[in-house]
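Protocol step 4 of 5: obtain the predicted structure for the target chain.
Materials: sequence only (see below). No template structures provided, no constraints applied. The aim of this step is simply to have a reference model before the mutagenesis design in step 5. Sequence pasted as it appears in the construct record:
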Amino acid sequence: MHRAVPPGFRAVADPRGNPAGTRIGWLEETPEGPTRLVVARPDGSDRTALHPPARRTPPTWGGTWTWCGGDAVLLVAADGRLLRVGLDGPVTEVQPADGTRRLGPAASPDGRWVAFAAETATEQRILVAATDGGPARPVSTADFAWDPAWSPAGDALAWHEWDHPDMPWDASRIVVATFADGVVGTGHVVAGGSAEQVGQPRWSPDGARLAWVSDATGWLTVWVGGARGEDPYPLLSERFEAAEAPWGAGQRSFAWSPDGGAVAYCRNEDGFGALCRAPVRGGPIATGDLVARAWHHGIDWGPSGIVAVRSGARTPPRIVVHRGDGERLDLADGDPPGFSRDALVEPEVLRWRSGSSDVSGLLYRPPGPARPPVLVDCHGGPTGGATVRWIADVADAVARGWAVLRPNPRGSTGAGRAYLAALEGRWGEADVEDVVAGIESVRARGDLDGDRIAIVGGSAGGMLALLVALRRPDLVRACAVAYAVTDLRALAAVEYRFEQHYTEWLVGRLPEHESVYLERSPITRAASLRVPTLMLHGDADPVVPIDQTRAFAAAARAAGAPVEVHEYAGEGHGWSRPGTVADADARTAAFLARAVLS
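Step 4 output (structure tokens):
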């Protein structure tokens, strides 16, 4: 379900303080206006919205802006330009709008240089340019690279890179290169490699150590080494993940303390987030100390405290500062109107067996003694994860009286590398088994209505929802999907560069595994569809082209299947316009009410 964003709601993202600790900035967006970079004093006073508008970014990510000294920022504008914007007004074009998508700008300590990722249809590389304008110089040579970081002395640059056919969570590297007078030296791999995920390189404030995330222990957690990555060790030995799958640039799930003696990080506890603090002692410690519950994204630690986007099942995203005395200051309140606090609930962790595997999910049960209908909400990716952050769709469904199950089948993140890797070659099989087993466990409960279950999902989650509806129509009464994968062979042929070889890992190489692609594609069984189904898709989707929905719907309708389809002109992979979100929400809610509740 996609809830209409109510008037007045402010989406907030990407907070960070300036080096002097005198200002904190973050992004704000409302449905009625553009995304603005807002700058304020650490106590929230003296707020100023800078111009021009910034590129949009989800609350869980960043990569749109950074500080350039204490009185200017580097901003990726909505029109594609990279700009240097002074707090007192002057704007300098650092890079023009030329069709390049720029990500994760990082300013050198002296403010003279900017490193950033530049993405086109054929490459994604780290570039360096002068902040007063001029040509950019290529730095990286890998197929993909992003998240550059400068050493405090400005004499080195680090970044995260990987090559086809891997995705960044399969195998990636941290690279460090020297820098002097505008020239970046040859890069050297300091962490990662084959069968290891790494990311988010960051130096300690004194430049003596480099930190990053790695799953070398089987759990994606913070590692610390010397200034060039030497003698690395995991900061913690706990079995929690401290980062999420890097679907985009700008993730900041940890930060150094201003004195370099500790690291703040957010860990995944069965889907629940916890902001923690761990001292850096030269070797792993058992676990970090709890600072605050709830998910914290965009973590930055400066003189004012730990700044982050905080959200939970009952807490819409807001910019907060956790101070050393335990006090929390809310800088930007993202509470949307239209939700009753009494209708918002915390989920419980539901566990079940699927064959020989242990699987879990999050179950949100609406208040009241009645046996509510159940909405099974499948996450995308499939390398995604159901977590207890603010999700308006889920809050809206619960407010409408639905219980919501958000399963984490094999292949999901947050439960260690082995669990993620369990989907290799088994997409469309193992995850389907796990969700079916989860639905059966729900049906066995006495407090939920097991005869009124619907399943929904988007992208890979849409494919999962369709496969469950096709293979086990006895379990669900309706299916609603958005921009869903229906044809795996057609997906493998799509020239979307980031995921160009993803299906090889998830299903197998073609043509050797063509029979597997056919067996696991929803379109192969479209004529057998008996569950009422709603399909939504944008006609400008570059990841899962709209032909996937059109072809499935045509085959299903030819066999007399009950399929409703609606297309959104100009929309891509995910809804970007408030009007589309509102319409998709209304269509989905009305469809589910007709198919399940009437």
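Step 4 remarks: Residues 1-8 have pLDDT under 50 and may be disordered. The chain has two domains: 13-332, 347-597.
Proceed to step 5.
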